[in-house]
Amino acid sequence: MTIVSLAEQIRAAMNAARKDRDKARTLLTSTLLSEIANRQIELGHDLTDPEVVEVVRRALKKRREAAEQARAVGRTTHADAEAFEAAELEKWLPPSVPDEELRAAVRAAIAAGAKDLGAVMGKVMPQFKGRAEGKVLNEIAREELAPKA
User: What torsion, rounded to 10 degrees, do the Cα atoms 62, 49, 11, 61 define?
Assistant: First the structure.
């Protein structure tokens, strides 16, 4: 049994989209492969799957931000296109960690002596790198650090 890398899976998806004459998916996957190649040149070695996941996360973040901005100025067609691309990119990411597991890790970091947001994030982020969004972790950490009334 051969293990296929994530980059190879994306390349196969691009070829399938080309065969299906799906312009949107072809453009998205070829753009993603270009970003992967650029990162590979930057680092000077073939990317591992976790490094490819990081490239996909960056691309996803760009699409989500673009969709938000387009909606804010009333460009719903553009926002919908960006949202479609974001949904397609999410398919390439590993399943995200449940919020309960993130909350437990944040509580453990606080119990271990992390008193401020930076310290908590510094302890928790490496545990979930590539599997959880920093924004979600940040929100959970803020909730847990907030004084209880």
Answer: -10
Provide the pLDDT for residue 148: 62
- Closest of 5, 4, 3, 33 to residue 18, by C-alpha: 33
Are the C-beta atoms of 141 and 106 separated by less than 8 Å? yes
CA–CA distance, 93 with 80 (Å, rounded to integer): 21
**Cα separation, 66 vs 84, whole angstroms:** 12
How does DSSP classify residue 127? G
The predicted-structure confidence for 74-88, as pLDDT tens digits, reads as follows 999 999 999 999 999
pTM of the model: 0.73
Long-range pairs of 105-111 with CB within 8 A, sequence gap ≥ 24: 106/137, 106/140, 106/141, 106/144, 107/144, 110/144, 110/145
Q: Which two tokens stand for residue 98?
A: 């449940």
